[in-house]
Fold this sequence. Notes:
Layout: H1 3-15, E1 22-27, E2 33-40, E3 44-46, E4 51-53, E5 58-59, E6 64-66, E7 71-73, E8 78-79, E9 84-85, E10 88-89, H2 91-97, E11 111-112, E12 115-117, E13 122-123, E14 128-129, E15 133-135, E16 140-141, E17 146-147, E18 150-152, E19 156-160, E20 163-168, H3 169-179, H4 184-191
Parallel strand pairs: 2-5, 3-6, 4-7, 5-8, 6-9, 7-12, 8-13, 9-14, 12-15, 13-16, 14-17, 15-18, 16-19
Antiparallel strand pairs: 1-2, 10-11, 19-20
Amino acid sequence: MNWNGLFSRIRFRLSAWVRPRMVYGFQRGDGVFLKRTRVSNMTRIEHIDKLMVEDNVYIGHFNLIDASGGLYIGEGCQVTNYVSVLTHSSHVAIRLYGREYLTRDNHVGYLKKSTRLGAYSFIGPHSVLMPGVELGKGSIVSAYSFVPAGEYPDFAILAGNPARVVGDTRDGDAEWLAQSPELHRLYEAWAND
Length: 193
């Protein structure tokens, strides 16, 4: 029996009685315990068995993390608050079928696609990532963005509704690295991977 994982799950559930808080340590669906990953006790994770998350990830308060279609969250990602990361959506199918939606199977318009968040990406508050998003490493999704399905390049800054690429995070990173050149080696260890 994996006591670390059991204790983590119990602590996670009990913390909901207290207040929103970050729970340190997370057990993936495959049983691997990630001691540097932090997840809010107020975030909803659906289909944890289809979630592949790397270590050193931060998932803040009041998010919906839907992994039903397969979800990968790379190392060092930050998902702030009030974010929806989706891998399925029935919004088109429900409009098409109307009142008959619940009486039918194999719905036309039902979306189910895997979603991928590249390493060291940042998802701003109140953002929605639709099924089929492939976000490159080192990217930023600005607050209140609606990100449609698609492949987005490494280091992209996305903003808007619908979101589009409006910049490159390396531009801002270069300023910080110029001020602290000792960090080049650490930055390049993941950025050039």
